[in-house]
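@channel sequence for tomorrow's demo:
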Amino acid sequence: MITRAGWGLAAASVLVYAVGAPFGYVQPAVLAVAGLAAVGAGALWTLRGAGLEVRREVTPVKVTRGEPAVAVLHVRNTGRWRHSGLVARDTCRDTTVTVEVPSLARHTARTVSYRLPTRRRGETPVGPLLLDRADPFGLVRRVRDYGRVDLLLVRPRTVPLTPLHSGRRRHLDGLASRSAPAGASSFNGLREYVVGDELRHVHWRSTARTGVLMVKELTDVNLPDTVAVLDTRLSAYAGDDEFELAVDVVASAACAVTRARFPVRVLTGVGELAWARGGPGRTSRCSIGWPWWSGPPPPSRRCTCCGGGGVVGLWWS
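structure tokens (generated this afternoon):
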């Protein structure tokens, strides 16, 4: 691809020749030929084999919104010629990051690093990486893609909170709902076995009678329950930054509850977003990347489903 400097030199060469040729001057013709020859030589320079080994690493691959994420670029020259004027362009979501690679002598390597934007949470694709290679005069440039698209997971930013006071379910003999969090206190019913169920909960009499592996469903009748509600209407926020802040607040409340080993549900305008039983290792679902939803919450997802539990609501005004 001819750069602006290359097109300018070619146009100037043609103009000089057009002005000097009618008068029989030799110098304008020589200058015009030299300019066009420089552009042609630049094209041949970029067409030859690059002889470059390019590798890019994203570290860390999981960050909290606003935390630094760095891409490390390793470039090695395996060819016989020196390379200069290398420019790497990487795409992260809607942002293009440009970084210059120092000149490379033959059989040498360079490592450069650059920051990746983490202002918005979610699964952020990084790449593909484009490497621009120009001739020594910057007249012609060739673009080639290297490597694969890496995935950067940006989680909501959470702060430590004290769990809110939650009520207890008003059921003397357990819950009738099959969606209750699993516990170990009271028998709630039978259901078919799914991968991950403990074998000690298998109900062998029902299994023998039905021919299908059945397990006992146990619930904790005194376990508090919390529901976090996030308003996802586009009109409720002035922009992306306010929405990201709202997600951070809901994620902080949900993670605080799960760290206290209590169950939590996160509801949005399109339905249930996440559910966690609480306890060690149960907070990851509260830190996933949440996209932007719109539309009013359906009636089936109102906060009345939590019985005597606590409710964390978030509306923006």
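heads up for whoever presents: The two ends are 51 Å apart (CA to CA).
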